[in-house]
Amino acid sequence: MSSSTPPTSARKTIGAVFRREFAGYFRTPLAYVFLAVFNAFAISLAFFVGYIYEAGVANLDRFFLYHPWLWAFLAPAAGARLWAEEHRQGTIELLLTWPVTVWQTALGKFLAGWAFLACALLITTPIAFTIGYLGDPDVGVIISGYIGSLLCAGACLGIATIASALTRSQVIAFVVGFLACFILVIVGYGVFDELLAGILSPGAIEEVRRLGLWRNLEPFTLGLIDLRPCAYFLTLSFAGLGLSTLIIERR
Amino acid sequence: MALIEAQNLRKSYGSIQAVRGISFQVDRGEVVGFLGPNGAGKSTTMKLLTGHLLPDSGSAKVGGFDITESPVAAKAHLGYSPEGAPAYGEMTVREFLQFAAELRGLSEPSVKVQNTLSLCRLTEVAQQTIETLSKGYRMRVGFAQAVIHDPEVLILDEPTDGLDPNQKFEVRRLLKEMAARKAVIVSTHLLEEIEELCTRVIIIAQGEVRCDESKEKFLQRGSDLNQVFRQLTA
After folding, report:
1. Sheet with B4-13, edge to edge strand ranges
2. Does A170 touch chain B (CB under 8 A)?
3. Which residue of A5, A28, A93 is in closest CB contact with B149?
4. Chain B partners within 8 Å of A90 (Cβ)
């Protein structure tokens, strides 16, 4: 009797996929370019567009204000490869014929992408220390802002993984993911109000605006960790995970 | 008990019926050669057996487990190398096999990796990234991930495609070494491979089994196997 093996535990599978994917980011110089670009944009938007220094207030509102834009662009960039690359290399056929379930693989991939985005966010922390040096900010508010930004990143990554599951081209995955996230950014600024005015009541239009990323991130930057924005970001993350799993299973 | 059982498998892509009611069984010790023209449904049948695709109707069992109803248990008994032996090009051979061993939940994965590396004569390229390897080595890496857990069922889609004669010899040698303890399906275009490797022949054309018999019987059909093949697949 040959040694047919017992099925792998979910935790081990998720861990193995996580390690492979996370290490995968750093196999190419692209990861470092990504981290540098994120950091450069995050800091310069805060200083040169948000005038965080001139404002003379010891908080990071004007730093987090631009994070939905950054994540809308960079989460799809980081998430594009997660499934598209498996399709391109043909390795999807291995994953689907090894004794693991798709949701375990999907979760491992998602967590790896999220951890990579967390690294990008971590690199920006000197700005918090700078503000702490210059003034006397509320540390709790800063931490809650970082938590909000991380949840926002996860939501954008969830959307990006759906786009990635749909195609074998990383470029298409990126563009589709970016467009979807971009819509979620601008919807909060009332861009579609006139378009929707004839169809929806003013109350409903306000509800649509509440779907914007910044509208949900803002409470975090004020130090409020509310149920509603948390649920919003986590719903997008889980929807991304669930839908990409379904897409891969039903291919 | 048959280790591989296909029961009236059917699969369509849109309006094209790729597999139209294929049934057969493979027992331990058998090496079945899958022959057929391109587009005959060989690869689709393999994908249905391995759980990569779900059948429209019919069922497939691997090691006694239904691939649709208990996919994880069935896949644990299965080693499969898809056409072209896909692998993560950016990983080294050792990293890739380690990953395969971990996802399969093998005990002592490092030991299994080491044994498989030497079994498949990959030790000298273990630290090279897969994308830098020659085709012969890459096909062997695909073979290695399929046998790392010493499965009872081995399904290989064109494992010698594009290899030079020496490399072909090497892959066939490996297969012959382990075939007695397993149920094996190998798809191929090469009639010579049937003679050398297989114990049984299944010819598929237009999504149907056209011929399913022992190698000896198949070889008696005529001295010109190419002509036999053309007649059976016409």
Report:
1. B16-26, B4-13, B57-62, B65-66
2. no
3. A5
4. 82, 84, 86
Q: How far is B208 from chain A (nearest CA, A)?
A: 24
End-to-end Cα distance, chain B: 34
Q: What is the DSSP letter of A5?
A: P
Query: Which value, to the nearest 10 degrees, does the dihedral of the CA atoms of residues B160, B162, B164, B169 take?
Result: 0
In the block, tokens 């924005």 appear at A229
**B126-156: per-residue pLDDT in tens?**
999 999 999 989 999 999 999 999 999 999 9
Which chain B residues have a beta carbon less than 8 Å from that of A2?
150-152, 181-182
Q: What is the pLDDT of residues A28-64, one digit of tens each?
A: 888 899 999 999 988 888 777 776 667 666 677 778 8
A3 and B CB contact within 8 Å: yes
- Give the number of other CB atoms < 10 A from CB of residue A250: 8
B213 contacts B200 by C-beta, under 8 angstroms? yes
Predicted TM-score (pTM) of the model is 0.91
With an 8 Å Cβ cutoff, is B61 touching chain A? Answer: no
**CB-CB neighbors (< 8 A) of A5 in chain B:** 76, 104-107, 149
Q: For residues B24 and B30, give the distance between their C-alpha atoms in angstroms, rounded to a whole number.
A: 13
Q: Are strands B57-62 and B153-157 parallel, antiparallel or unpaired?
A: unpaired
Q: Where are the beta strands (DSSP E) in A51-144?
A: none
**Number of CB pairs < 8 Å for A and B?**
92
- For residue B212, which phi and psi values (nearest 5 degrees)? -145, 100
Q: Is A196 helix (H, G, I), strand (E, B) or coil?
A: helix
**Residue in chain A nearest B75 by alpha carbon:** A99
Give percent of chain A with pLDDT exceeding 90.
58
